[in-house]
Amino acid sequence: MALGLGVVIGAFGAHGLQDRLDAYSMMVYEKGVFYHFIHALGLLIVSFLPRISALSRSAANWVCGLLALGIVGFSGSLYALALTGNRMLGIITPIGGTAFIAAWVVLAIALAGARRSNTAQPSTRDEHAPAQSSVR
């Protein structure tokens, strides 16, 4: 959904706004589309990590929520800024950027914690028992 919306917003900018926005506003709009796409890809990838047991569902939900908040806050404010010229909307942009940063930090911590807990799992084999041969 987020990737499809990014395509629609990007195409609208490329075809519908090219002659209507000045160079600065077009650059701001395109920056919003770029960050939208990167973080929408992040949403897609992170949503699959619980399926391969690389990340807990709870951690994935947090990361995806923060990425979605970032797309709306960061990219959305850039879209609005470019379309309206109201620079006061730029106040919202750092909130979205902070959500992006928080998402990546939460992901890194969760993956490091998952890796640590996987390597700390006790062995199911009794280490003092003789090894059993599979040949009989």
Nutshell version of this structure?
With 136 residues, the chain is mostly helical. It has one domain. It is 71% helix and 0% strand.
> What is the string of helix and strand elements?
HHHH
Task: Decide which structural class fits the backbone.
Answer: mainly alpha
| Radius of gyration, taken over Cα atoms and rounded to an integer in Å | 22 Å
Terminal residue distance: 56 Å
Give an overview in words.
The structure is a single chain. The chain is mostly helical. It has one domain (2-116). 71% of the residues lie in helices and 0% in strands. The chain has 4 helices and no strands. The chain has helices at residues 2-16, 23-48, 57-84, 93-119. The longest helix has 28 residues, at 57-84. It is elongated, with a radius of gyration of 22 Å. It starts with a helix and ends in a 17-residue tail after the last helix. The relative contact order is 0.12. The mean pLDDT is 90.
Layout of SSEs?
Elements: H1 2-16, H2 23-48, H3 57-84, H4 93-119
Descriptive keywords:
mainly alpha, 136 residues
